[in-house]
Amino acid sequence: MRFSIFQDTALGARSMNQDRMGYCFTRECLMMIVADGMGGHLRGEVAAQLAMQTAAAAFQQSARPSLPDPVAFLDQALRQAHREILRYQELHGMPEAPRTTVVASIVQNGRAWWAHAGDARLYWVRDGRMMSRTRDHSKVESLVALGLLKPHEQEHHPERNKVLNCLGSPFEPTIEISPGVQLRAGDTLLLCSDGLWSAIHEPELCQRIGGGVVNVVVPELVRQAVVSAGKLADNTTALAMCWEGEVRSIDTLSSVLVPDGAVTTTIGFGQLDPESAPELSDDEIERTIREIRSAIEKSASR
Fold first, then answer.
1. Long-range Cβ contact pairs of 138-146 (< 8 A, separation 24 or more)
2. Phi, psi at residue 19, to the nearest 5°?
3. What is the distance in angstroms between the CA of the first residue and the CA of the last residue of the chain?
């Protein structure tokens, strides 16, 4: 596999960033995930962290070096994440569990699958045009599906942030999974939180992400979304991957040199309980991001 990939996040106007993002890959398989902790509930950032780390741990265990069934993996990994969040609630005696929306994608053998719960989105873009995107599990999306609301009216609807499905709810979540699509060289998959897609018009978002280099366009879009939303800016997160198949380019990552049983990742596989680990300062977080970017650049130059 050869691909370009980049991720970025911004606090926006919030006091805490409850979004989480990351990716893992073996020689034959790539997993990407974005989780958006729900601020209307306690410790949304914990739910997002648990979702990301649970999926990463499942990927490390199952991708050897490929997944036998990507669809089953996505369903099982996100449901396991839901159970881990409920376990966290029980262990800490919380009146309700933390909650998060989530979107995850698997790329293997030139095909892509994705799954989501809530309103974290995935866009599949080709030549600047949207081929497909996830449909939000939200009240306004349901109104659109029923013909009671026009698509363009979603942006300013007073209940546009009302999510009907997530991980961590008292009910078993609905994990909606795509049937799988064949990727073409140059196709881009964008995973993002609602802080991004709610602040940039969809045609512009797709044109920008499909017409540029991901390590340039992603941070530009994140900054644009925060500026556009102003005082209402939510946490804003984007992770984009441009597929190159087997075409060799110095600007892309290659999985060829990843040994059997090894996983390259931006996600830590440590203790799943975030409260057990020391909090990182802003400087430490920035240093970690710089180290990740440096590692990506070194890998791409091989």
1. 138/162, 138/163, 138/164, 139/164
2. -85, 150
3. 14
pLDDT, block means (10 residues), the chain with 302 residues: 95 95 96 94 92 96 96 98 97 95 98 98 97 92 78 67 92 96 97 96 95 94 97 96 71 76 76 44 48 48 47
Phi–psi pair at 20, nearest 5 degrees: -135, 150
Contact in structure between 131 and 181 (CB atoms under 8 Å): yes
- Tens of pLDDT, residues 40-68: 778 999 999 999 999 999 999 999 999 99
**Tokens of residue 43, six digits:** 């410790």
Assess contact for 83 and 55: CB atoms under 8 A.
Answer: no
Give 2-300's CATH code, choosing from 3.40.50.510, 3.20.170.30, 3.40.50.150, 3.60.40.10.
Answer: 3.60.40.10
Tokens of 21: 């993002």
The residues spanned by each domain of the chain are: 2-300
Cis geometry, peptide bond prior to residue 278 (ω within 30 degrees of 0): no
